[in-house]
Amino acid sequence: MAQSSQAAGGLMSIPALLQRNATLFADKDAYREKEFGIWQRWTWAETEKEIEALALGFINLGVSEGDFIAIIGRNRPHFYWSMVAAQSVGAVPVPVYQDSASEEMEYILAHCGAKYAVVEDQEQVDKIIDIQEHLHQFEHMIYVDPRGLRKYDHHALHRFTDIQEQGRASYYEWIEDLKGRREKLDYDSTCVMLYTSGTTGKPKGVVLSNRNVVESAKNSSEFDNLRQEEEILSYLPMAWVGDFIFSIGQAYWCGFCVNCPESAETMMTDLREIGPTYFFAPPRVFETQLTNVMIRMEDAGKFKRRMFLHFLEFAKKVGGRILDGKPVSLGERLKYGLGNLLVYGPLKDTLGYGRIRVGYTAGEAIGPEIFDFYRSLGINLKQLYGQTEATVFITAQPDGEVRADTVGVPSPDVELRITEEGRIYYRSPGVFVEYYKNPESTADTKDAEGWVDTGDAGFIEEGSGHLRIIDRAKDVGKMADGSMFAPKYVENKLKFYPDILEVVLFGNGRDRCVAFINIDLSAVGNWAERNNIAYASYQELAGHPRVLDTIQEHVEAVNKSVAEDPMLSGCQIHRFVVLHKELDADDGELTRTRKVRRAIIADKFNDIVEALYDGSDKISTETEVTYEDGRKGSIKATLDIRDAKVVQVASKVAAE
Known about the structure:
By secondary structure, this protein is α/β, with parallel strands linked by helices. It has 4 domains: about 1-280, ANL, N-terminal domain (Rossmann fold), CATH 3.40.50.12780; about 280-380, no CATH class; about 390-475, Roll (Luciferase, domain 3), CATH 2.30.38; about 475-655, ANL, C-terminal domain (GMP Synthetase, Chain A, domain 3). Helices cover about 40% and strands about 20% of the residues. It has a 5-stranded parallel β-sheet, sandwiched between helices. It has a 5-stranded mixed β-sheet with strand order 12-13-14-15-16.
């Protein structure tokens, strides 16, 4: 611990970093939020006062050291302040996904024993009121947006600004208590508790210490040379570990500004206005933006479209090499400069990526074509591999060593180990403390020496030292003939197509693979409009013969690609169905981070799975769905089942 605290300059908690920033960067912007079309600003000195007032208000309200405080809302300074204020009084912040259903919130708040919650608006207040009778420990709720709440009973319901005012009014009463609690914080104090997405069961509470967060923030910031001048846009869920490390860990370590969009609907506009220098997005964001760009170019004039495609093709050849500092001729540099003036620069500005110095994507594999597209424009987009239990960082790609098929080298102070079975283990200062109230799962995941089982399978390349991920270890299986079954490998290849949103592959223990496919309604809807194809619903468009023909072309193209890999050639898709509904977290089919819950999907749509295997060419089915207001209903559909061409692999033919 002594070595770690020295490495972090003796700053052993987020509140300690706040105190430093309020002194060193007093007049620099710490937060911006767009409200009613205007950017509101708070300097580090002002931020420290806002958080202090809230922390004093917490103590005045009765918050004790060790209490859990749920934080539920979209990315706003108030909720980041709430987390740091909770830490300052020795409490534990527990961010919760704002789109969680009431029963999901009930599980998390009951499991951690939250006595308090800071929420955004009437919707979140109503959710907690609905479940409050089951939360016997719950005491007080604080809300930020007062609209619609004037006539509610306010005995245990408080306005955010009122709690701050009460804190300021009781300054002399509680300030010494606050200072005493802050000074107790050390590297072993709990910094935050984040719940896993619950892919295979109930979410687990991952306890992260100040050591985990501060050391991970320090190491990752130094790895990418992040500075106080960086600008980020915080728009990803606050309950996700990535947002916590970027918007609190790294922001407080470096002292850079966190910008919060006005709403999810204005996020892309706000992104263009801010022009972040440091940016993170899951692959789906980059895929959607590229799809929108290509759709707009379809509607552009002939000359503009030809110029765009010409320079884009040229950028593919030299853009990545220029970005990596590799040799490029003077003529190519001059032409690339012209392309930057006419195409690349304006396009980056339109996307909001004109100032990005470091960009990351993670969570899922990104298509090589999409990855290379952004890098060809001169955007330093890289990949990292991490998880909540690692405080994000396990591997990352160093500048100059960026490839689409790896997730980089071990992050600073991270050790990697691959077992004979191909399971990936790591050990680092970011390794979580425990799963809250779950010693069995903690022991299953982390051994006595601090090695953590990622649950993923992969290997380290000889020579480069880069890690390559094959799949989730639990999902890797065997086909009936003994060949490897790795569904994620095939699913990701199909999801590279912009008109495919989600894929679920089946085949473990079977003689062949089959697949469920969700179309991307936005991309396919745009295609339908351009081709004058009328449709009234997702279900109608998903079953359109021309859509099915296009999806079949994609499946067969992927089969050819999969056949080229001798180890995974058995994973070609023999039959598929385009589902009549989008897989949805509200229906339990996906987690809140959009991870597929395979077992639940296989059970829920068992009739469709069996039809794919029994040779049927159609299947009539009825499925329960959850509407936005929480009501349940059902939809009926008759689905076409398609056969796809597979490529016979020479070795298998010979064996037969």
